[in-house]
Amino acid sequence: MVHEHAPVVAAVNGTPASDRALDWAADDARSRGLDLRVVYAFDWPHYHAVPHGLPGFDLDEFARRIVEEARRRVLERVPDLTVEAVHITGDPEPVLLRESQKAHSLVVGAHRMTTLDAVLPDSTALDLLVAASCPLVVVPDRDPGPAKGRVLVGVDGSATSRAAAEWAFSTADVRGSVLRAVTVHRGGPWWRFGALEDPSWTRTDEERKTEEAAAEKEARRILSESIAQERANRPRVRVEEVVATGHPVEALCATASDCDLMVVGSRGRGGFAGMLLGSVSRNVISHSPCPVAIIRPPH
């Protein structure tokens, strides 16, 4: 699933959002003992039009300055890290997708969220989420605060979430972090085709309690089975098992409030099993209080 010895790739563009992503990527590369590759991808016609008529403007010099400043920032933060910094002419999405084919992971920054962004996250992040060949990490444009020493992974029993669990356990292991494994089940009645599948008013309080207890027991079974193999493979990792109730995005983001990283799986077209209203992995990008790693299973 992961190119184990490939570099961590950080996408930069000279903005504060990309600086936060760069810092995260440098720290992650250090913890994993990997090199860091810094990439500035730019569309030449777009940037050529912006400074048109400015005396002494040189596009290549502008691009070199961005990557060299990024390289200096990394080495000030992690002096012994091996860093390669390059600028590539081309649309950012296809350039970064090509980079993802030879990367351990690809790290991008998310711009500060607006009301619209909460519904429609940055298009570049979404394009890369669907098609990236390696794990994609989206770093929010906010102060991360002190490290919490905890990595969260969302699991639902699918092959996709097992791939996410594998990556999350590996990350927690190299960081010396606690691994919080979370599964989410809906506590209320399910809606199906616009009507309640089993109207709550047809059941007594005792029947509802029995059903809720059975649902939680099943969720705990799925959670334990989903992480059993990785728990055996990495016994040093301390694990917290959490069963949450409600909408997956809301529950995962609330549970991640004291975490350094959230890890979720993506099939490219959807999030958790059974989700009919859009992808969990796409929506947690907008709402997560911490960086989000999106993991796709191997083809």
Explain what this protein looks like in three dimensions.
With 299 residues, the chain is an alpha/beta fold. It has two domains: 1-144, HUPs (Rossmann fold, 3-Layer(aba) Sandwich), CATH 3.40.50.620; 148-299, 3-Layer(aba) Sandwich (Rossmann fold). It is 41% helix and 20% strand. It contains nine helices and twelve strands. The strands form two sheets. Strands 3-2-1-4-5-12-11-6-7-10 form a ten-stranded mixed sheet, with helices on both faces. A two-stranded antiparallel sheet has the order 8-9. α1 (16-32) packs across α3, α4 packs parallel to α5 (123-131) and α8 (248-255) packs across α9. The longest helix is centred in the C-terminal third of the chain and has 29 residues, at 205-233. The radius of gyration is 21 Å and the shape is elongated. The model is unreliable at 113-121, 189-197 and 268-278 (pLDDT under 50).
In brief:
This protein is an alpha/beta fold and 299 residues long. It starts with 7 loop residues before the first strand and ends with a strand.
